[in-house]
Design a protein that fits this description.
Structural class: mainly alpha
Strand content: under 5%
Low-confidence stretches: none
Order of helices and strands: HHHHHHH
Radius of gyration: 16 Å
Number of helices: 7
Amino acid sequence: MALKNAPDLTQRPPRSARVRLGGYIILPRMLDKGRATLNGKNGEYNYACPLDQRFLEYAGVDPEALKKELAAGKGDGEILEWIHQNAKNKRTDAEIATWSEQGERRVPTDPESRAYFNNLHQQAAPTREDIGTWFDLLDVDDYVSFGGKA
């Protein structure tokens, strides 16, 4: 049975990693990918990818257990409640805000990551000089992947 609230990521990207739910970056994007995966409409997007793992590890949430909640058709608010009840790492609002702000500003730091970042930047938006963070790169890559002009 298909989920009614699942996005079709073959037609449009998931929400930006900047979008927050309960103060958490990454979470709404991961939920979009999880729902789309359950419907077989995830396209090139992968649930529980390395980016998603940053949230999963920070909150202390099992990706398969979360996927079962998504499969039950729960909305974002219900999923957030489930996370509050089931996350191994209980975080304060201030801790979540700090973690999210730092995550939004993440840049490639080691030479291998920087080379990977620069290669993706060159492919997606070679003339853009405002792509500095991983989230900048994700946003522009999502945009151009669906026909936008960088």
